[in-house]
Amino acid sequence: MLTVEGLRSRYGRIEVLHGIDLHVDSGEIVTVVGANGAGKTTLLRCLSGVQPVAGGSITFRGEALTPVPAHRRLSRGLAQSPEGRQIFTNLTVEENLRLGAFLYSDGRVEKDMEDAFGMFPVLKQKRNLAAGGLSGGQQQMLAIARALMGRPSCLLLDEPSMGLAPILVQQIFDVVKGLKALDVTVLLVEQNAFGALKIADRGYVMETGRITMEGTSEALIADPRIREAYLGI
Amino acid sequence: MRLSEKQWTLLILAALIALSPFFFPSSYYYRVGSLIFVNGLAVTGIVILTGYAGQISLGHAGFAGIGAYACALAPAHLGLHPALALVLGAAISGVLAFLVGRPILRLKGYYLAVASLGLGILVAMALANESWITGGPDGIKVADLGLRAVLKSQGLDLSNTEFWYAFTGLALLIGAWLALNLHDSPTGRALRALHGSEIAARTVGIDVARAKLAAFVISAVYASVSGSLLALQNRFITPDVAGYMHSIEMVTMAVLGGAGSVLGAIFGAGILTMLPQVLTVFAEYEQLMLGLVMMLVMIFMRQGLLPSVLRLIRGRGE
After folding, report:
1. How far apart are CA A29 and CA A36, in angstroms?
2. Beta strands in A28-149 (DSSP E)
3. How many beta carbons lie within 10 A of that of residue A107, not counting itself?
4. How much is the pTM?
5. 3-class state of residue A43 by DSSP
6. B205 closest CB neighbour out of A50, A74, A88
7. ipTM field
8. What is the pLDDT of residues A152-180, one digit of tens each?
9. Which residue, A47, B2, B84, B298, is the most exposed by fewest CB within 10 angstroms?
């Protein structure tokens, strides 16, 4: 579904991605784990089109993605829940969801919204409140729900567990795992390697702008190097 | 029945416009009222641009100037009816805003403020210097709208100031109604979303550059119509209408009253239109007082007067 080959990107003259190769197949949950500063967020920014690509290719459902501007990528089926959640804090919860469905004006929008409320009942309680007043966990739920309103076939998630209490982290990971049932393919970027690998089918390890390891989640969790460096076991 | 914020705003506005005349000690107050409404209309456009979309223009008086001079020149040279001249001015302003905004609004940041400042100054200079057509700095006469005579023949005899009070009040109501409708439309939501985060707005599929351009064009049309109404009301116009002080005034009114809310911004227009009348007691200290008021509001009520006061009242009520 999504194939990245030799992807390079730079901030000014400093190259931060030195040729990334990865692929996500339809129906999979794939995670990219790595320490802070490894380039995970830059990778996602390239995929969503807000970061210029300096080399290599991104192919999504058979189409070259690099020439497609950021705001057109959702209509191709690629949604993103950006880093730091990036919900619209001054708008209400409901307005945030409606913006997720900005591209659509058919009857399915209302149905999708009911589905989102079914998935996250707390959002329904707070639908008319400013999204900025939600707790961190609720904001993350809103960010995911908003991305789903765009009817994506593939969802890019950037650090959904960031800054959340452990009990909420588990809740969010359960939600991500549940996306499989909705036929949404997921590329999950996480610092929380253990939590991410537990719900993912496959994983990539990223270090200073390169993919250094890849494999099934089981294999990565069992790998002594990973256990030592990221899992702290 | 619970009224929505939109209905409340329109109700309060309509009530203020309709009931204020009962407290007017002299016909001079109709004149002040219609000036407030004309400024309020321009400032409503600023609410769309600055309050909704978070973009700042320092040249909107340029569009007011185009609207005003369209009403002066088109009837005299093209034989257009003044009402059509108003529409023509709005169209020219909209097209100009489109042409200027299109390359600039692709960029994020203060570029629009600088470019619009330049545009406003350019328009003001053209109006002042091309005296063969504009009459130069001395100004130019504006044709009569003719509507008052029509009303009179229908048996509704209004004095000039009464007529303009009612007419500009109605124009303001319509302008506010349109702006409030925009607020809750998909385009309005898109504008408020990109105000919060352009990146997030793009990831939900909003063409940020296009949305910002739409806000700029719409607000330019508001400024243009406001300029036209001012010209038609005064029957005379000078290039000052396009001066950059007038641009700053518009932004100041919106920010003072609360750029995020239509009612707040109109409230700001009211205060800043009336303040000079009150401050004449202080004569040469007028500008000083104005600056002081602005600074205090920005320090203590960053969201603007009306939203801050409303929050204070609501906070007490709970």
Report:
1. 21
2. 29-34, 55-60, 63-64, 78-81
3. 8
4. 0.88
5. helix
6. A74
7. 0.82
8. 999 999 988 888 888 889 989 999 999 98
9. B2
> Does residue B74 surpass a pLDDT of 80?
yes
- Contact between A90 and A130 (Cβ < 8 Å): yes
Quote the CA–CA distance of B194 and B31 in Å, as a whole number: 39
**Which CATH number does the domain housing residue A182 bear?**
3.40.50.300
Distances (CA, A) of A103 to A95, A113, A150, B193: 14, 14, 7, 14
Q: Any residues with CB less than 8 A from the CB of B229 and at least 6 apart, and which?
A: B38, B41, B86, B167, B168, B171
d(CA A185, CA B90): 49
B193 neighbourhood in chain A, CB within 8 Å:
88, 91, 99
d(CA B41, CA B232): 15
Q: What's the pLDDT score for residue B317?
A: 46
Q: CA B77, B81, B83, B88 torsion: positive or negative?
A: negative
3-state SS track over chain B:
CCCCHHHHHHHHHHHHHHHHHHHCCCCHHHHHHHHHHHHHHHHHHHHHHHHHCCCCCCCHHHHHHHHHHHHHHHHHHHCCCHHHHHHHHHHHHHHHHHHHHHHHCCCCCCHHHHHHHHHHHHHHHHHHHCHHHHCHHHCEECCCCCHHHHHHHCCCCCCHHHHHHHHHHHHHHHHHHHHHHHHCCHHHHHHHHHHHCHHHHHHCCCCHHHHHHHHHHHHHHHHHHHHHHHHHHHCEECHHHHCHHHHHHHHHHHHHHCCCCHHHHHHHHHHHHHHHHHHHHHHHHHHHHHHHHHHHHHHHCCCCHHHHHHHHHHHHHC
Residues 6+ apart with CB under 8 A from A129: A92, A93
How far apart are the C-alpha atoms of B29 and B21, rounded to whole Å? 8
Whether residue A128 lies inside any domain: the answer is no
Contact A80 B203 (CB under 8 A): yes
CB contact under 8 A, B205 and A86: no
Return the pLDDT at A214: 93
Closest among B55, B17, B38 to B234, alpha carbons compared: B38
Nearest C-alpha of chain A: how many angstroms from B200? 6
| Region for residue A89 given its phi and psi (left: phi exceeds 0; alpha: psi -120 to 50; beta: otherwise) | alpha
Domain count, chain A: 1
State yes or no: pLDDT of B159 exceeds 80.
Answer: yes
Which run of H or of E encompasses A42? helix A40-48
A190 part of a folded domain: yes
Does B200 contact A82 at a Cβ distance shorter than 8 Å?
yes
Largest CA distance in chain B: 63
Tell me which residue range forms the domain holding A178.
2-84+152-231
Residues of B with Cβ-Cβ distance to A146 under 8 angstroms = 204
pLDDT in tens, A55-108: 999 999 999 999 999 999 999 999 988 776 688 988 999 999 999 999 998 889
User: Tokens 């063409």 belong to which residue?
Assistant: B207
